[in-house]
Write a structure and sequence with these properties.
Blueprint lengths: L2 H14 L2 H8 L3 H15 L4 E2 L6 E2 L1 H29 L2 E6 L4 H13 L4 E6 L9 E5 L6 E4 L1 E4 L24 E3 L6 H13 L7 E3 L3 H10 L3 E4 L1 H6 L3 E3 L7 E7 L3 H8 L3 H8 L4
Parallel strand pairs: 3-4, 8-9, 8-10
Antiparallel strand pairs: 1-2, 5-12, 6-12, 7-10, 7-11
Helix pairs in contact: 1-2, 1-3, 1-4, 2-3, 5-10
Length: about 280
Amino acid sequence: MDLVAASRAFVAVARHGSFTVGAAALRIPQSVASRRVSALEAHLGGDLLDRSARAVTLTQFGAGLLPAAQRLIRLADELEHDAERARRRPFRLTVPAICPPPALARLVAAARAHGLHLEPVPAGREERADGAALLAVPPDVGVWVVPLGLAARDEPVTHVERLRPSRADSGRPDRRIWIQPEDDVPHVRDRVTRAGAAAGLRPAQLVVAGSLVEAAAEALSGPDLLLCSAAQAGAHGLAWSPAADLDVARGYDVASGPPARLHLLRTLLYVPVGECLGVVA
């Protein structure tokens, strides 16, 4: 028996003095209201209403229990209200500052379709260390993996070794690879450093930028290259290619939040989160 529904029927019928009117107030059939009150009487062990007269009245037993039934209904209503408010409370999730706003908007819309009111907060890599966040992790343990390549203003570079200085380049500045702050992590930076050394690049040809804007500007204004995802290259109007001798990728996972919400992000929201990060399907 649904104790709350039965109590609602009992209180409504007692208030209106009629099963018909009480049922109409609850928007349920009269027969349903009658069954619920009868079930409540059987559960409590006594008649709550006197049905012998033309108007339904409270019995002595029913009059004694009416205040408790009213309190139960108020508590049930408060519980449902609090539950709805809790469901609508925004879930703050710090995300990489490189996530494009249109993709974040689509993620928020997709999350609402699954009952999650997501509030993404773009932040730098170090600022995402506390609270629920999309964290940078090595790609072999990442839920989302974003391949990186080299982007240039003109033709893409398919091999790092093509940037090796030669005698023919004497007098011209060395072409540099700009690493954005999001990729200033060991599993990316160290791989790029090793690949550059193996290709014969000078140490000064690998530069960690202060911001993505700075790094992209260098690639747009000269011969330098930007280490980035294909999505970032497209957004900045740069030609992009994975480098055959540069196997690097970003890895991401979501951490430090309610397990059910983290699971939702990793499963049903996997694609829209990946779109924010630049995952290529």
